[in-house]
Amino acid sequence: QVQPVESGGGLVQAGGSLRLSCSASGSIFSFNSVGWHRQAPGKERELVAGIDKYGVTNYANSVKGRFTIGRDSAKNSVYLQMNSLKAEDSAVYYCNISPRLAVYYWGQGTQVTVSS
Question: What distance in Å separates the CA atoms of residue 82 and residue 68, rounded to the nearest whole number?
């Protein structure tokens, strides 16, 4: 079983940056896809960014140009580099790993708070 573990959340001022990391057992390059999702209070969970096993990435329109998802081979992890953060980016961020089609594992989440 794959258990994603997120790290890197915290409190940052608007305009600042944070880098989230998602690690798990098994090679990240073998997973079908890895995604970062977020959920703010009173809102539904939404996909922020994803990367598939071929390295193809996709982003929510609200974060395009500000966030970057990638794979760190040295740390065997998937990161989410978040720049130019806004108050509306505040949420719990979750890592989702799909080791193969139709199988998904969620991490416990990490809180990101952006003060305006």
Answer: 7
The proportion of the chain whose per-residue pLDDT surpasses 70, expressed as a percent, equals 100
The amino acid occupying position 112 is: V
Predicted local distance difference test score (pLDDT) of residue 1: 79
Q: Strand 33-39 to strand 91-100: parallel, antiparallel, or no bridges (unpaired)?
A: antiparallel
Please, what's the largest Cα pairwise distance for the chain?
40
- Pairwise CA distance, residues 2 & 34, whole Å: 12
Tell me which DSSP letter residue 27 carries.
-
Whole-angstrom Cα distance, residue 101 to residue 113? 32
